[in-house]
UniProtKB/TrEMBL annotation:
SUPFAM superfamilies: Flavoproteins (SSF52218). Belongs to the WrbA family. It comes from Salix purpurea (Purple osier willow). Its cofactor is FMN. It is an enzyme of class 1 (oxidoreductase). The lineage of its organism: Eukaryota, Viridiplantae, Streptophyta, Embryophyta, Tracheophyta. GO terms for molecular function: FMN binding; NAD(P)H dehydrogenase (quinone) activity. Its EC number is 1.6.5.2. This is NAD(P)H dehydrogenase (quinone). NCBIfam families: flav_wrbA (TIGR01755), PRK03767.1 (NF002999).
């Protein structure tokens, strides 16, 4: 059995919805299980309240040491000025001990994301996140164009890219569309198939 870990940060709930759909995709693949985790919040409740942040879910909070138990990773985060949110970066910054021993090297990793607008970082957020994977020796697994016709949709606004599933939050009221959720499901299923091909715990 392959154990995958989907770790995410979600302030307004958009990334959390993608994570839930990705889990459904991974669960559809025999011989693979996925555990959902959220990274610790770094902002005080007062600030979150002023920002209109959504209440936190009961998904458990991850610690860096939890990463060692997984055979692969799916990391999700919103963008801040074209890069991953500071909360997720702070979590990765705390993985120095794992980096020093290269305990995550050789393990597959994928990413998914949310931006406010079409020019808000659907590609730059992914590109800048890859550096984190590289230093740990992880193997980046993009979805490419395996989602098929959905990758070429032009009649409706759709987040995501060859790097991974994505959505647009707009002013916070827009929610992931059926097509965006379908792409997230596909990423979970596709990534699981790739992860099964890697040597290691089975």
């Amino acid at each position: 059995m392959k154990t995958l870990l989907s770790s995410y940060y979600s302030m307004y709930g958009h990334v959390a919805k993608l994570a839930e759909e990705i889990k459904k995709g991974t669960d559809s693949v025999e011989g693979v299980e996925v555990k959902l985790w959220q990274v610790p919040e770094t902002l005080p409740e007062e600030v979150l309240g002023k920002m209109g942040a959504a209440p936190k879910s009961d998904v458990p909070i991850i610690k860096p040491s939890d990463l060692t138990e997984a055979d692969g990773f799916l990391f999700g985060f919103p963008t801040r000025f074209g890069m991953m949110a500071a909360q997720f970066k702070a979590f990765l910054d705390a993985t120095g001990g794992l980096w020093g021993t290269q305990q995550l090297a050789g393990k597959p990793a994928g990413i998914f994301f949310s931006t406010a607008s079409q020019g808000g970082g659907q590609e730059t957020t992914a590109l800048t996140a890859i550096t984190q994977l590289v230093h740990h020796g992880m193997i980046f697994v993009p979805i490419g164009y395996t989602f098929g016709a959905g990758m070429f949709e032009m009649e409706q606004v759709k987040g995501g890219s060859p790097y991974g599933a994505g959505t647009y939050a707009g002013d916070g009221t827009r929610q992931p569309t059926d097509l965006e959720l379908a792409q997230a499901f596909h990423q979970g299923k596709y990534f699981s198939g790739i992860a099964k091909k890697f040597e290691g715990t089975a």
